[in-house]
Design a protein that fits this description.
globular; single chain; six-stranded parallel beta sheet; alpha/beta; binds flavin mononucleotide; 8 strands
Length: 243
């Protein structure tokens, strides 16, 4: 699907971006650094309209608990709203936050060939029967409105090209899981070789920046020229995953 046609931002409607952060390394994180470039590109793509970005640090999220597992296994949702502090309540809030976003950016490292446990905790909260997918005779069908998802991932070694010496379970897993809830427009950009010394890191960053530029150039937004134009208008806030 063409992202340029699916972005719902209009002159009157700011573009709401939810950035889901999975690295435990805070501002030192390579995946977060790369996601920042995607935010810049989205700001340019918004064409002078306000981009409203919310950060969700999944490292603050607890794992789902037994009451949540029991609720999902029940034939129907409980009649009364879930009490604050329960996994079900947190799940409601995280799903509402995801649903409110026009664009989702996920910043994640690879941990042991797949996604970090913090990001998996978020997935367990937002992939939820009767809320974000239904079970049909054809399988699970997502109920969320489709929207672009950009995944900025980083890894110490390589998962692409001739130097890849490890399996990559992260990209197929996220692709499939996001599609399960209705998000089919997923784009991956990776910074690879971050553990292989300064030169490899700089080369990896350069390749990743070029990939971001190519991705957004493909949608008619030239990152190389647009920085001479309109000043960027971006508002940023952090959301608590625990509330
Ligand atoms: C627990 C753990 C497991 C890791 N497993 C892998 C791995 O399987 N493959 C890989 O290439 N790098 C692996 N790495 C390295 C990270 O992916 C790499 O340092 C990445 O750039 C970190 O991104 P960040 O700065 O956004 O956290 C691992 C790092 C940690 C802490």
């Amino acid at each position: 699907m063409d992202s340029a046609t699916t972005l719902p931002a209009t002159r009157d409607h700011p573009m709401h971006v939810l950035r889901v952060i999975a690295s435990p390394r805070g501002t030192e994180s390579e995946s977060r650094r790369l996601s920042q470039e995607i935010l810049e590109a989205l700001t340019l793509q918004a064409g002078g309209r306000t981009l409203h970005a919310t950060d969700l640090d999944t490292n603050e999220l607890p794992a789902v608990d037994g009451s949540y597992a029991a609720a999902l296994a029940s034939p129907a949702d409980p009649d009364s709203p879930p009490a604050p502090g329960t996994t079900l309540h947190r799940s409601d809030r995280l799903i509402a936050q995801l649903d409110a976003a026009d664009v989702v950016v996920i910043a994640t490292p690879i941990h042991n060939f797949t996604l970090p446990s913090a990001l998996k905790a978020w997935v367990d909260h937002i992939v939820r029967i009767r809320s974000t997918f239904c079970v049909t005779p054809q399988g699970k069908v997502g109920t969320l409105r489709n929207r672009p998802v950009y995944v900025a991932l980083s890894c110490g070694g390589f998962i692409s090209g001739d130097r890849a010496r490890q399996p990559d379970f992260l990209r197929p897993y996220l692709q499939h899981t996001l599609a399960t809830v209705g998000l089919h427009d997923v784009h991956f950009v990776s910074v690879e070789g971050t553990a292989l010394g300064e030169a490899a890191l700089l080369a990896g960053r350069q390749r990743a920046s070029e990939a971001v530029a190519a991705l957004f150039d493909a949608y008619g937004c030239s990152l190389r020229t647009a920085t001479n134009g309109t000043p960027l208008d971006r508002h940023h806030e952090a959301a608590s995953a625990l509330a």
